[in-house]
Amino acid sequence: MNAAHILAFDCAVDRFSALVTRGGEVVATCVREAGQWRGEEVVPTLAALLAEAGLGWCELELLAVAVGPGGFTGVRTAVAAARGLALAAGLPVMPVSTLEALAHEAIATLELANFHTGLVAGRGLVHLLAVRGGKLAPAPRTLPLSELHTALPPGEPLVLARAERADPALLGERPLHRRSPHARGVLAAARQRVARGEPPREGCAVTPLYLRGPAADPAAGRPLVPQPA
After folding, report:
1. Which of these, 70, 65, 48, 52, lies nearest to 6 by C-alpha position?
2. Is 93 within 8 Å of 206 (Cβ atoms)?
3. DSSP character string of 101-128
4. Pairing of strands 93-96, 141-144
5. Cβ distance 63 to 7 under 8 Å?
6. N or C: which end of the chain has fewer CB within 10 A?
7. pLDDT tens digits, residue range 161-201?
8. Rounded mean pLDDT of 113-139?
9. What is the CATH number of the domain that holds 103?
10. Computed over its alpha carbons, how large is the radius of gyration of the chain?
11. Contact between 30 and 49 (Cβ < 8 Å)
């Protein structure tokens, strides 16, 4: 598969960003920072971006979307939009993780080769993905923020989303690049997956990527909904 017309977007972590490629080149982009967009605006904004690029839905060859980890609302919005557009227009989807998107953008814009990307999560946790020689690790890992300074090599750069949610003392003495995922990284990650022969998915097969369990566990105590006697 060699898709030239691609719509890539991300809204999993605070920011909403999207881009369209035509003939393999980025021809239209959109960025809305946290607090400047709402979930119901995602699909209309994507439609306007596609029109700006001079393409119709039937001309697209691939949707690329970040499916998490991230905020609950953002992840669900991204997945719902990708599913709906894919099913309505008959488009294949390449889902990628927000950590992949962060890593690919860091490689391109920061010219880093050996580093970690990370996302500060709830309950004092951080999701991490290692990059060595420009190649991403097969899978991310999740650990307590309190263990971050000892878990990473001393002095290794860290590209971190939602860094403002972490106590600076827990980040250790290392080069810190504060970043949010961007559609550029989503596009790069999707292209790499296509290049290594990974097939895209149908819309109904796109699911959120969660790297930790739910905050509420009904089995841990009283049921969330009163049960009949």
Report:
1. 65
2. yes
3. HHHHHHHHHT--SSEEEEEE-STTEEEE
4. unpaired
5. yes
6. C
7. 999 999 888 888 889 999 999 999 999 999 999 999 999 99
8. 94
9. 3.30.420.40
10. 18
11. yes
In the 3-class helix/strand/coil scheme, how is 29-63 assigned residue by residue? EEEECCCCCCHHHHHHHHHHHHHHCCCCHHHCCEE
Of 97, 78, 87, 100, nearest in space to 205 by CA: 87
Q: Which tokens go with 49? A: 């971006």
Q: What is the pLDDT, as a whole number, of residue 213?
A: 55
> What mean pLDDT is reported for the chain?
90
**Is the link from the previous residue into 168 a cis peptide, with omega within 30 of 0?**
no
Q: C-alpha angle with apex 107: 69 to 137, nearest 5 degrees?
A: 55
Domain boundary among 156, 178, 200: 178
- Looking at residue 149, its pLDDT comes to 85
Length of the chain, in residues: 229
Residues 57/40, Cβ–Cβ less than 8 Å: no
Query: 93-96 and 25-32 as β-strands: parallel, antiparallel, unpaired?
Result: unpaired
Is residue 39 assigned to a domain? yes
CB 189 within 8 A of CB 104: yes
Q: Based on the structure, what is the number of domains in the chain? A: 2
Q: Which helix (H) or strand (E) holds 188?
A: helix 183-195
User: Does 215 fall in a domain?
Assistant: no
Q: What six digits make up the tokens of 55?
A: 């393409």
What is the pLDDT at residue 171? Answer: 85
- Is the pLDDT score of 229 beyond 50? no
